[in-house]
Design goal:
- By secondary structure, the protein is mainly alpha-helical.
- It is 77% helix and 0% strand.
- The chain contains 14 helices and no strands.
- Helix 4 crosses helix 7.
- The longest helix has 34 residues.
- The protein starts with 6 loop residues before the first helix and ends with a helix.
Length: 260
């Protein structure tokens, strides 16, 4: 029911809106607009931007390959401990990113539980490499995709898949030919969310991959480094990330910004 908003609700709502928007407005007000082209044309900035875009895209691809099947298993099958598995999948959402980076080091580091075997058997070392950046970003971004795709799967009618299997298709064929086209918008929305989360990842990346310009220094790490020596450069870099975030929000407007 729509009508006049009670004053005890309107005032805190307005304060909440101001609280959320004020930092963005401050960023725009204090931005060094005149020196912006010079700030954004340095080699370090382009290296960080290029690495961020490549690593976020690669992390999203990893999340798609692993996360979509995981979401299907959670949504379409029933097994003991499914609730626990779902809780573990969402754990990186609430885990402090630095803790996630430490956990990745203990698992995939040169002396880690799995990393020592990767190093001795295949000569693969992930920490403090570009591949390590992708691993760290995929670790924090994949839950966003899994949750989005699982929700879409639960909303989709499973009778289409059942009809396909009744006509002789295997469950994998039904998944590939029926389910994937049916949930494509949900997958796209989850992929965009995962990409945006990977692009802004900081804590796990700096802990697991370090901060080496041209190799592991992404845009958030460049912002942190610039803030200590050149605040105007940090503001300019932050505006780039803010622009990307707004673009992601605009891309998802049909999903989240058109609520009745």
């Amino acid at each position: 029911m729509r009508g006049r908003v009670p004053l005890p609700l309107l005032l805190p709502a307005l304060l909440g809106l101001v609280f959320l928007l004020l930092p963005m407005v401050a960023l725009l007000v204090r931005a060094p607009w005149r020196s912006m082209p010079e700030q954004l044309s340095s080699t370090e900035v382009w290296q960080a931007l290029q690495l961020s875009l490549v690593s976020a895209t690669a992390a999203t691809a990893v999340s798609l390959v692993l996360g979509v099947p995981l979401a299907w298993v959670l949504a379409r099958t029933d097994f003991r401990g499914r609730g626990l598995v779902r809780a573990l999948v969402t754990l990186p959402l609430v885990l402090p990113p630095v803790v996630g980076g430490v956990a990745l080091l203990l698992a995939l580091g040169r002396n880690g539980v799995v990393g020592q075997w990767l190093d001795s058997w295949f000569g693969v070392t992930l920490p403090f490499t570009t591949a390590g950046v992708i691993v760290a970003e995929a670790f924090v971004a994949m839950p966003f995709l899994v949750i989005s795709v699982e929700g879409t799967l639960r909303a989709a009618d499973p009778r289409y898949e059942e009809a396909a299997t009744t006509l002789g298709a295997s469950r994998f064929t039904a998944f590939r030919r029926v389910t994937l086209p049916l949930i494509a918008p949900g997958i796209a929305a989850g992929a965009v969310l995962a990409w945006a989360r990977a692009l802004g990842e900081f804590g796990a990346t700096i802990t697991f991959a370090g901060n080496f310009p041209g190799r592991t220094q992404t845009m958030p790490l460049a912002v942190y480094l610039a803030l200590q020596s050149d605040p105007e450069a940090a503001i300019a870099l932050s505006l780039v990330l803010l622009t990307v975030s707004i673009a992601v929000l605009a891309g998802l407007r049909d999903r989240w910004m058109t609520a009745p």
